[in-house]
Write a structure and sequence with these properties.
15 strands; mainly alpha; 1158 residues
Length: 1158
């Protein structure tokens, strides 16, 4: 197996497991043993990387070694009052412990420091003998103390549970040594690992499995690993299942002792309760007449009941911190006491061999990696196992378990079963190719035996489940609900829409005797579509219905507890979070008074969770306020030191969330208080890019961001701008707002797509084009036929195709050079031109200039006719007769109005004689002809779009992106690429040869030149400015044979170099009219050239002899060229000229092989 230095590939870091480190050291040892030197190229033998683009360089120019925003360091020993006040359960648990401790101390003191019962006290000398049930005969006028001693002893047992009471309450004391869970410091490495795990899940969901390499299974493991690690991080929200962390949450040893103490308290209280029931029917213990005894026992009832209250608070506190840290189920956390005990005391463990211990660690590491969906650790562990245990280790270690006595079996902890349960297709693929049996058996339902499981088993008898029952009748049991609750619970999507449309309150809670059911409709939604509808209507997904009690949960926690992962994903897209602190809840609910009250109690405005713990998503109260557009509480937090640039686990600041959810007021407040609008999250998204996905993005929001330094054309790693993202999300309002704020409609992404290319909705495209001034079609018509052009424009826009006309009045005021620049810019950005051909069309200089410019920049031209006008030579160079759509049949009559119009070439006297013409239409025939035109227009627009994308993809993308990054629009960078005019000097330069006529050639006028050409016969070569070297070679060979040759575009000493496309087209037309023969260079490139097509059609129309030259530019090796250089070549094509080519071949073959000799 080839060894790879994994740490150099960015796949190993300091936090890897011991098994991974062992595999790495073993790998290095293998390299030394074989004497192999690892070269720098070998590092990337199996690496899958994407080419770097300027988008990467833009983002890399803003290095980010760590996330913005850090909480203040925790006190080393004791957490202060600020942490206590900003907590749901700490205050309750702590103060209840103080109260119970005081009562217990009083009870213990009364028992030990008073006289005996007969002397008016409570002390019992022989407590052991007094614990039995007995009847005592009382002496006349004397006391009866034996029965009283029994109940005093049992009452004192409740008071003497003081150590257990204090022990259970110590996790809420604030002392760091009694913390319930181990703290882990968040780092950017954790963020990268978090996103890499999410990328692994996205690969699995998209079924992107890696091809197998049978010769080396470990190579497959590395390849699969690299495909995950090197993928771009584009995930903005969790897409995974139950597993939230890369490692399990670890309970402290003290918490586990508290759990056992809680179980002990339950048992003692249970035994005391049994005694009370038994004492009702046996003995006379309840007939004690001493007042002090009765008071002592009655007072013991208070701590007895409070024991259950304390256990309830302890359970709620434990569950709240556990879920806050991302462990929603008991199996998502661990204690570690069992493994520590086995390592220290188990005799079998002490005598195990190194191989057996290694196999045990491998089994544990593989199952842990598969359970947590950590593909990287799984791959490293598999490599290490194959090296130490052999390639068939899986078959030996994971054989089918045996059934013992038909009831008992032991689990093998097969990682393949865990991967299958999590739905991780990529991990399944890796394990099967590592030798795990696809049909292997294993015991999945294993019995967990930990202190937490024991505690939860007994606690469930008196602590209700926070997840409501899913039975159909449970929500109606002693519960008052709204119609919206009913529709949501029954998954009636249309009913939910109707109720919301009629003003239903999406945040109204039900009324119930069961606290679990006092929730708004969002908490019982199980359908992602319904959840989205409720959130769009303003449902508060950060609501904590019953803070500090049973329902200290958010909708996200309920979704995870119910294993409803699709709903959890939808909630997280909207900023859903787990319940954290009262300050978070007050900020999210916009209760500014509650926020001020907590801040006055020294609550940390940058708190990440209860009692100094960091919550699952690492969000501050500012994040919650931004998510819920709570501007009042947001301002209070900012004034008290809230960090507006604090980044959560995904690298998002409050400004990211406010922008992504369209909270304009919060965006402005954050920007005014120092929020940085250029910070990128872990997916390289800035607030501007997040705003592009906003459902309610407005131009006011974007203007705020731009005012404070945001770039409206900022892009992601793939080159998508905010406008790209808005179009992909089908956010029309957001897209129009971006366009109004200056977003570039022509900027392309890494794949060459403009924003318009990311949607198939013609309505969406039409609105964007109309808002930006971009037009699909330019209608060119004479001023006398404006009425028909306007009707045609309205018909096209009714079909969601944008159309426009040049303003002749404005054009007359523009100088000639400015006119040309404007017309070239406008026509080059148009997909197609429609010319309205009428009798006076050729009289309009503006119309002819538009057609010439269209030919120059490569914009196709279609024509419609209304007056049976003849297409003369002036128009044949621009369009074909077959491309004209006649509308004469749709015109019933025409009239001329008295309003005068204008022609730019007529005198003032003549202009008044030209009057506008209007038509009377047969609408049915008009629609029929319009449909013919519409089909052609749509085909041409789609053809232009695909051609533009293909052209952009074939070009050097890096150069294109650098042009766009400098601020130049895509249109400005591509206008030149449409121009097909190439002069003779460019042809010569392209061939690498000197121009023999460069010194003698001079600029001469066209007329003398045309008169000289008319005096002799010549050959015209049409080439479309393609194949420069071949054109020059053909020109020289024909000239050396005595032929006069004219090359299109300013031939060598034959035609002048045209200054623009109009002059060139006219010169080419005149040359074809006077030539004796026309040679057309036909190749893959010229076949797509409109200039060549037009000249070929014109020559055919004028009946000039045409000699097509089929140019094959296939690249041949030097050896092949040397073998074929002295032999004639016979050219064949599959679609034209086959018979002629075959005739040439057979003629030569008959010379060598006569038919008689065959």
């Amino acid at each position: 197996m080839s060894a790879l230095p994994l740490e150099k590939m960015g796949l190993l870091n300091q936090s890897e497991t011991d098994v991974s480190n062992n595999a790495h050291h073993h790998q290095n040892a293998s390299d030394k043993a074989t004497g192999r030197k690892v070269a720098s190229e070998d590092i990337y033998d199996h690496e899958i990387s994407e080419p770097e683009t300027p988008f990467h360089r833009i983002i890399d120019a803003q290095p980010q070694t760590m996330l913005h925003g850090q909480t203040k360091p925790l006190p080393p020993y004791l957490l202060g009052s600020g942490y206590v006040s900003n907590s749901y359960f700490v205050c309750r648990l702590r103060y209840l412990m103080y109260c119970m401790a005081f009562i217990d101390c009083v009870g213990i003191a009364a028992f030990w420091f008073t006289d005996s019962i007969n002397d008016g006290g409570l002390y019992v000398e022989d407590a052991r003998s007094s614990m039995s049930f007995r009847k005592a005969r009382c002496v006349a006028r004397g006391g009866c103390s034996d029965s009283c001693e029994t109940i005093v002893v049992y009452g004192s047992l409740i008071y003497h549970m003081l150590p257990l009471v204090v022990l259970i309450g110590l996790p809420a004391s604030g002392w760091r040594c009694f913390e319930p869970f181990e703290r882990t410091e968040f780092s950017p490495v954790d963020s990268r690992q978090y996103l890499q795990n999410e990328q692994s899940r996205r690969h699995a969901e998209n079924h992107e499995s890696i091809e197998a390499v049978p010769s080396d299974q470990s190579t497959r493991i590395y390849t699969s690993l690299n495909s995950v690690s090197d993928s771009p991080m584009q995930v903005n929200q969790r897409s995974g299942g139950k597993k939230q962390n890369s490692t399990k949450l670890r309970r402290t040893a003290f918490l586990q002792i508290c759990e056992l103490s809680a179980v002990l308290v339950l048992w003692i209280n249970f035994l005391i309760m049994l005694y009370y029931i038994y004492g009702l029917f046996h003995g006379d213990s309840l007939n004690c007449g001493y007042v002090q005894v009765q008071l002592y026992v009655d007072l013991a009832v208070i701590p007895f009941v409070l024991h259950f209250v304390e256990l309830c608070y302890f359970f709620r506190y434990r569950e709240h911190i556990k879920m806050q840290l991302g462990a929603f189920h008991e199996e998502d956390q661990t204690g570690g006491l069992k493994s520590a005990f086995v390592k220290t005391f188990h005799r079998r463990h002490l005598f195990k061999s190194k191989t057996t211990s290694f196999a045990r660690n491998i089994r544990k590491a593989l199952f842990k990696a598969a359970e947590l969906e950590n593909l990287r650790d799984l791959s490293y562990t598999l490599v290490s196992a194959q090296e130490r245990l052999g390639r068939d280790f899986a078959a030996r270690m994971y054989s089918n378990p045996k059934m013992r006595l038909r009831f008992f079996s032991k689990s093998k902890k097969n990682p393949l079963h865990a991967a299958a349960a999590n739905g991780n297709v990529q991990m399944i693929d890796v394990l099967i190719h590592a030798g795990f049996g696809v049909n292997s058996l294993d015991k999945v339902a294993r019995m967990r035996l930990s202190t937490g499981d024991v505690f939860l088993y007994f606690a469930k008898f008196f602590i209700s489940d926070p997840v409501p029952s899913d039975t159909a009748t449970s929500i109606y049991k002693t519960t008052l609900v709204t119609p919206l609750h009913c529709a949501v619970y029954m998954n009636q999507i249309e009913a939910v829409k109707a109720l919301i449309a009629h003003g239903a309150d999406v945040n109204k809670c039900a009324k119930s005797s069961n606290a679990n059911h006092v929730v708004p409709p969002l908490f019982i939604a199980e359908n992602t579509m319904i959840v989205r509808l409720l959130l769009e209507a303003g449902a508060n997904h950060l609501l904590v219905p019953d803070p500090g009690h049973q329902n200290t949960l958010t909708a996200l926690q309920l979704a995870y507890l119910s294993d409803n992962i699709p709903v959890a994903r939808e909630l997280e897209k909207w900023g859903g979070d787990v319940a954290l602190t009262p300050l978070h809840a007050a900020a999210g609910a916009n209760h500014d008074a509650a926020v001020r009250k907590l801040l006055k109690k020294k609550a940390d405005p940058n708190s990440l969770g209860e009692f100094g713990y960091e919550g699952l998503h690492r969000r501050t109260p500012l994040h919650w306020a931004a998510v819920k557009n709570a501007s009042s509480s947001l301002l209070e937090l900012l004034l008290c030191g809230g960090n507006p640039n604090f980044q959560d686990r995904l690298g998002r600041t409050p400004l990211h969330w406010a922008a992504s959810l369209g909270s304009t007021e919060c965006v402005l407040l954050l920007l005014q208080n120092g929020a940085d609008c250029r910070i990128r999250d872990a997916s390289t998204m800035t607030p501007m890019l997040c705003a592009g996905r906003a459902r309610l993005g407005t131009d006011v929001l974007f203007n705020h961001l731009i005012k404070y330094g945001a770039d409206v054309n900022d892009c992601t790693l793939t080159g998508d701008t905010a406008l790209h993202l808005a179009v992909k999300e089908e956010r029309l309002g957001t897209a129009l707002s971006l366009i109004a704020c200056g977003a570039d409609m022509h900027k392309v992404n890494q794949y060459g797509f403009r924003p318009l290319d990311n949607t198939t909705s013609t309505k969406f495209q039409f609105e964007m084009k109309r808002a930006s001034g971009y037009r699909d079609i330019l209608i060119t018509a004479t001023p006398t036929h404006v009425e028909f052009a306007t009707k045609l424009k309205d018909s096209l826009e009714r079909m969601n195709i944008t159309a426009w006309r040049l303003d002749y009045v404005e054009l007359e005021k523009i100088e000639d050079t400015s006119w040309r620049e404007r017309v070239v810019r406008d026509i080059a950005s148009t997909s197609i031109i429609i010319a309205v051909i009428t009798q006076d069309f050729t009289l309009s200089e503006c119309c002819l200039r538009e057609l010439a410019t269209a030919k120059e920049v490569g914009t196709p031209v279609m024509a419609v006719s209304t007056e049976n006008a003849r297409i003369g030579d002036e128009l044949q160079v621009y369009l074909y007769t077959r491309q004209v759509v006649p509308f004469e049949s749709a015109i019933v009559a025409s009239t001329q109005s008295d309003a005068p119009t204008a022609y730019d070439h007529l005198s003032e006297q003549d202009r008044s004689d030209v009057k506008p013409i209007s038509y009377l239409y047969d609408e049915a025939k008009y629609e029929a002809q319009f449909r013919l035109l519409l089909d052609g227009v749509r085909d041409e627009i789609e053809k232009q779009r695909k051609g533009q994308i293909q052209k952009q993809l074939s070009q050097n993308q890096t150069a294109m992106f650098e042009t766009a990054v400098r601020g130049q629009t895509m249109f400005e960078s591509l206008v030149g690429s449409h121009i097909s005019f190439i002069s003779n000097k460019e042809v010569t330069a392209g061939s690498g040869a000197e121009d023999p006529n460069s010194e003698s050639t001079s600029k001469v006028s066209g007329e003398p030149h045309r008169s000289n050409l008319a005096e002799r016969k010549y050959i015209f070569i049409a080439h479309g400015d393609c194949h420069r070297a071949f054109v020059r070679n053909l020109y020289e060979r024909l000239s050396s044979c005595g032929y006069a040759v004219v090359v299109d575009g300013g031939n060598f000493n034959e035609l002048p170099e045209s200054s623009n496309m109009k002059e060139r087209i006219q010169a080419g037309k005149n040359a074809i009219l006077g030539c004796s023969a026309c040679i057309v260079v036909v190749s893959e490139r010229t076949a797509k050239n409109e200039l060549v097509s037009d000249q070929l059609a014109f020559a055919e129309d004028k009946q000039r002899p045409i000699f097509p030259i089929l140019l094959n530019d296939v690249k041949l090796d030097t050896s092949v060229i040397s073998l074929l250089s002295y032999r004639p070549l016979y050219h064949f094509t599959t679609n034209v000229g086959f018979t002629a080519s075959l005739h040439q071949l057979m003629t030569r073959m008959r010379e060598i092989l006569p038919l008689e000799g065959m």
